[in-house]
Amino acid sequence: MEPTNDPKSNLIIVSNRLPLSIKRVEGGFESSLSSGGLVTSLSGLTKSTRFQWFGWPGIELKDPADREEVTKSLEEHNAIPIFLDKTLSQEHYNGFSNRILWPILHYQSGVSFDDTPWQAYRRVNELFADAIADAAKSGTLIWVHDYHLMLLPELLRNRLQEQGKSCAIGFSLHTPFPAGDFWRNLPVRKHLIEGLLSCDLIGFHTDEYKQNFIDTCASLLGARTEIGNQIQYKNRLVCIDKFIVGIDPQKFTETLAKPEVQERIRKLKDRYKGVKVIVGVDRLDHIKGLTQKLKGFDAFLDDHPELENKVILIQVAVPSREDVKEYQELERELCTLAGKINGKHATPEGTPLLYMHRSVPFNELAALYSVADVCLLTSTRDGMNLVSFEYVACQQERHGVLVLSEFAGAASFMSEGSIPFHPANITEMSEAIFAAINLSPEERKKKYERLRDFINTNTSAKWGQTFTDKLSYRCIIGPGLLVS
Ligand code: ADQ
């Protein structure tokens, strides 16, 4: 590969969805910023590095004139749309990625495999490979994100080779990677990990996920893995590492300083005077353990009648994947459960649970985090969980307590600063909530300072820079091809 002076000056980010969603409105199209963990994690890199972002714009457009108009408007944001037809994108996104792959990655059993969505998954990965190979030049760094695109590195590597281009390809998985024995439940278990092994660098959120992947490559593919943080497979040497993903804490500090947010905080404090506020913010997803959270909170209320009218759980459940049957069922279950809990514990003074099934604006989110005495996160599995970081960023001098499931990736870094518990153990959850509410000011400060230092050190900017630095290095020293 021809070394360039600064490989990062030529960076392509790829994710299934663009960070901007396109909607048809009267007289044209409108774009809006998407939210979610992936967008948050890449926000740091956006500040320091220019890159092109390839992905699906979230809308089916058949008319070439419409495509051109949308492409032009996205160009201003360095976003390049890859257009897909509706049935194909549905089968890829909901059919395979969200109904089959996502549950397997999060240790959910009972997943049934179906060949039609798998073929759609392949096809979409191929279409992405075509678009990106055409756009890349030799020396381009290509950073692919997440489970929707696990076949892409191999397909892309082949296309690039056909075109005589040599590029460094990196991949970051935002979910857990399960233990090998669980991963084997997926009939296409080998194809997906082989797809990734055409990368130069693969990043995971924790050491556990990284090790699971390494062990799986050894047992399923017979890859050589005893060579430190590298896997040798066929004629390639792939670097595997842990990169701690984070947030941009400054964005929260600036938001909290806004007069309108300060005013909102005052109002909320006034509204909940004398009441301990517990906050939860989660996408409405099985992995976030929302059913468990509501049951645990119910048990806590049963266990502590003396706290009647003195505690409230404000739970924001952000709508997610609403086309998928399992998510619709979960939503119905949560609504019923929330109604039952309030029916059982309400008094003329009010209800102990405020369940909001909608997205809230960023200012409101920051204000909520700021006034909450406790943040309760109950993930049954979760790649990292950035809400835990955001709560800490918004607490500042208040030293609120984080009650964090031991199954969130964040728990492997934050267990000493938080109160950990098992999300399926309702008694343990109830005790953890009680302990959080009653923690002494000294203990709260001690725990909080640990968390604050951690989130300020491991920012999204650092994550983006560390990964791209390492990928650039691979680009300069040459791709992961074995010399002999
Ligand atoms: P998610 O499952 O989306 O991310 P999480 O890490 O908690 O979960 O991130 C959610 C993000 O969405 C947060 O940054 C939050 O502020 C934002 N958000 C939530 N509600 C919002 C709202 N109403 N308006 C605006 N923004 C909102 C996936 C994995 C995680 C992993 C991340 C990053 O499932 O485990 O931590 O990617 O890798």
From TrEMBL:
Keyword match Glycoprotein: no
Catalytic activity: D-glucose 6-phosphate + UDP-alpha-D-glucose = alpha,alpha-trehalose 6-phosphate + UDP + H(+)
Principal EC category: transferase
GO cellular component: membrane
Main location: membrane
Keyword annotations of the record: Amino-acid transport, Glycosyltransferase, Membrane, Transferase, Transmembrane, Transmembrane helix, Transport
Compartment list: Membrane
GO molecular function, one term: alpha,alpha-trehalose-phosphate synthase (UDP-forming) activity
Top-level lineage group: Eukaryota
EC numbers on record: 2.4.1.15
Biological process terms in GO annotation: trehalose biosynthetic process
Annotated membrane topology: Multi-pass membrane protein
Protein name listed in UniProt: alpha,alpha-trehalose-phosphate synthase (UDP-forming)
